[in-house]
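Give me the fold.
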Amino acid sequence: TKPELALKMKIAKPITA
């Protein structure tokens, strides 16, 4: 799990975060 992917997911899906 790369930090970049997690960050992208957070920006792409702020609702999930």
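Helices lie at 3-12.
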